[in-house]
Design brief:
Distance between the termini: 23 Å
Shape: globular
Number of strands: 16
Number of domains: 1
Largest sheet: 14 strands, antiparallel
Low-confidence stretches: 18-30
Number of helices: 4
């Protein structure tokens, strides 16, 4: 269900860019991901998502935990539909898992990335999985994909020169720490990324005061980001996503515009609900 995947992305942007590092609209703290992650080990956040007059159509969580291998961390984004939405989608849930480590410049890089969908179809549970494994010594990315635990080798990519491409979860933790630049109004940032079509970028814009005037859902204070992500990441047709940080640096609101058949979709941190 495309709407759930877009909802997931809104939540991922909200939570992976969690508050505490945005001191104000014009400043980002200068922590590297390598220094930041130990203090975030064990953090857990919950969210809820709404559209039109319907509330709580999906719920989910984002969590970061340390791996048994020293210096590696696991970032996990999970979501499931609720109520009527759950019935319509076959009790569908999505899970995105990234294992990360710091490179020699202190940036996070992807060790492995896995995306899975678990749902009920005709009374039976089905699981669809795609994962990517990074071999930096060999300079390659190996893809595997399959269903119900049966994985087969897929595409193999040559790692490009320059900053390493990352998955969306790794990318937004890097963004949070300023790896790609400061979150100042008018800034245009690019996160190097990948898909089965090859390499590209996640485009981030920090909106100016004038650009924000036609987005009345978001207050005039704080920081507002617009993100454009490869449609393949969440298997959507593409849409603009917005994330708003309040003056305390908290990611208080999110919006995906023009979801097909639904309209605008709103994301809220659990316990911080504000209706559009």
């Amino acid at each position: 269900m495309r709407c759930l995947k877009l909802l997931l992305l809104t939540a991922g942007l909200l939570l992976s860019c969690r508050g505490g590092l945005l001191a104000a609209e014009t400043e980002l703290a200068s922590l590297t991901p390598e220094r930041m992650l130990p203090s975030m080990d064990g953090e857990h956040h919950a969210y809820t998502l709404d559209f039109l007059v319907f509330g709580d159509v999906a719920e989910g969580r984002l969590q970061l935990t340390s791996e048994t291998t020293p210096g590696r961390y696991r970032i996990e984004l999970f979501a499931r539909t609720l109520g009527v939405a759950s019935w319509l989608t076959g009790d569908r849930n999505h899970r995105y898992v990234s294992v990360v480590e710091a490179d020699d410049k202190g940036r996070l890089r992807t060790v492995s990335y896995e995306a899975s969908v678990h749902k009920r179809k005709s009374g039976e549970w089905k699981n669809r999985l795609k994962n990517y494994r990074f071999d930096y010594a060999a300079g390659k990315i190996y893809q595997e994909k399959g269903e119900d635990g049966e994985l087969a080798p897929g595409l193999v990519f040559e790692l490009p020169a320059g900053p390493p491409p990352v998955d969306i979860l790794t990318g937004f933790y890097n963004l949070r720490s300023g790896v790609y630049g400061r979150l100042t109004p008018g800034a245009h940032l690019k996160i190097p990324s990948f898909s089965s079509r090859g390499f590209g970028s996640i485009d981030i814009e920090v909106l100016t005061g004038t650009e924000r005037l036609n987005k009345p859902f978001f207050p005039v204070t704080g920081t507002l980001l617009r993100a454009k992500v490869d449609p393949e990441v969440f298997e959507t047709k593409g849409a603009d996503m917005y994330v708003w940080f309040d003056e305390a640096g908290r990611p208080a609101r999110g919006l995906v515009e023009g979801v097909v058949g639904i309209g605008d979709v709103y994301g809220h941190l659990r316990g911080d609900r504000q209706q559009p």
